[in-house]
Write a structure and sequence with these properties.
This protein has about 100 residues and is an alpha+beta fold. The protein has three helices and four strands.
Length: about 100
C-alpha cells in the first residue's frame, strides 16, 4: 500500500510540471526577414479546466486587435505566434505570445 501511495504521489508531481510550445515559423523551416517598422508584441492567456475549455477564438483575435492598436490601426506584418501550455493537475494554463512589425 505504501508503494502504491508513493507511485501515485510521484505521478501527480510529474503531471504538475509540463510545457509544450509550437512556433509557426518552424513549420516551413525558413527565416522571415524583419521589416523596418516598429516591433509590437502582445500576450494573452486563458485557463483550460480538464482540457475541455481551450483558448477561445475571441481571445486569440484580441491579440491581433491589440497589435493593430499598437500600430495605430495600421497594418501588421511578419507575425510570429508562440503558444505555450503549462499543465497543473486538472488545469492547463494556455499562453499565446504574438509579435509582428508595423508597416
Amino acid at each position: 500500500m505504501k508503494a502504491l501511495v508513493s507511485m501515485l504521489l510521484i505521478s501527480v508531481l510529474a503531471s504538475m510540471v509540463g510545457c509544450s510550445s509550437t512556433s509557426p515559423d518552424n513549420i516551413w523551416g525558413s527565416t522571415i526577414e524583419k521589416s523596418g517598422g516598429k516591433r509590437v508584441t502582445t500576450t494573452v492567456s486563458s485557463t483550460n479546466i480538464l482540457a475541455m475549455t481551450p483558448m477561445s477564438l475571441e481571445t486569440a483575435e484580441s491579440a491581433t486587435a491589440d497589435l493593430q492598436h499598437q500600430c495605430n490601426g495600421g497594418r501588421v506584418v511578419n507575425l510570429t505566434a508562440l503558444r505555450r501550455t503549462t499543465f497543473l493537475l486538472v488545469v492547463n494554463i494556455e499562453r499565446l505570445d504574438v509579435s509582428g512589425y508595423c508597416e
